[in-house]
From TrEMBL:
Family annotation (Gene3D superfamilies): 1.10.3210.50
Organism the protein comes from: Sharpea porci
Name of the protein this chain belongs to: HD domain-containing protein
Domain (HD): residue spans on this chain: 25-123
Annotated InterPro entries: HD/PDEase_dom (IPR003607), HD_domain (IPR006674)
CDD domains listed in its UniProt record: HDc
Length: 210
């Protein structure tokens, strides 16, 4: 991908995400792109495919658009004459956005990397900020005395109204064991430790201990 194509794509994405949907905005896309790119270098993956799939991974998200057959990603790739790798990129977006079965791992290295980057963005300092933003947008309490609900399927989970702290136990603390690549496992481990430290501080402060 040339610099001109990348710059053009970035400005198109900025326009696309300008109505800022909680959690799936332009900045999320940029973070996933940068992370995926860095992981791809470590893992010796195809940088063009990883870059395109990361940049386009959310443009056909059902929560954002009523897109059919990944039309937004296809439209953008056609605009820049990206032809040869188009189907490979679409296949990755399809795998990464697949929600029915959380254990589904993309079949190519490039797909595994984009999925890892998307999941890494849900943990660590950014993950904590996104979780509380989501909670605020959905009128959820920061914490309560309910127990976390484990092993709920994706569709039911979306209906379930957990406190944001419970979301850590239901999802965020489980993500480090779902990484595909060694590079992402290492990054996830660091982010995981950071979240655990954060939770310890949080409980101490709730109890007025600090
Ligand atoms: P994705 O499409 O990437 O799976 P989601 O819409 O499930 O994204 O989540 C977007 C962001 O909101 C993520 O950072 C996620 O952790 C957070 N989030 C999702 N559900 C909850 C919840 N019940 N409580 C707090 N944060 C949530
Ligand atoms: Ni995403």
């Amino acid at each position: 991908m040339t610099k001109e194509v990348l710059d053009g794509l970035l400005s198109d994405l900025q326009e696309f995400f300008k109505n800022d949907y909680s959690g799936h905005d332009y900045n999320h896309t940029m973070r996933v792109y940068k992370l995926a790119y860095n992981i791809a270098i470590q893992e010796h993956a195809n940088l063009e495919i990883v870059s395109l799939a990361a940049l386009l991974h959310d443009v056909d998200d059902v929560k954002l658009t009523q897109s059919i057959n990944y039309q937004n990603a296809r439209l953008l790739m056609n605009k820049y004459g990206i032809d040869k790798v188009q189907e490979e990129v679409i296949a990755i977006i399809q795998d990464v956005s697949f929600k029915g079965n959380q254990s589904k791992s993309p079949s190519t290295l490039e797909g595994k990397i984009v999925q890892d980057a998307d999941r890494l963005d849900a943990i660590g300092a950014i993950g904590i900020a996104r979780a509380f933003t989501f909670g605020g947008n959905h009128n959820r309490p920061l914490y309560n005395d309910e127990n976390p609900v484990l092993n709920m399927d994706e569709a039911s989970y979306r209906q379930h109204k957990s406190s944001t702290i419970n979301h850590f136990y239901e999802k965020l603390l489980l993500l480090k064991d779902m990484m595909n690549t060694d590079t992402a496992k290492e990054l996830a481990y660091q982010r995981h430790q950071f979240m655990k430290n954060y939770l310890e501080e949080f409980y101490d402060e709730i109890e007025g201990k600090k």
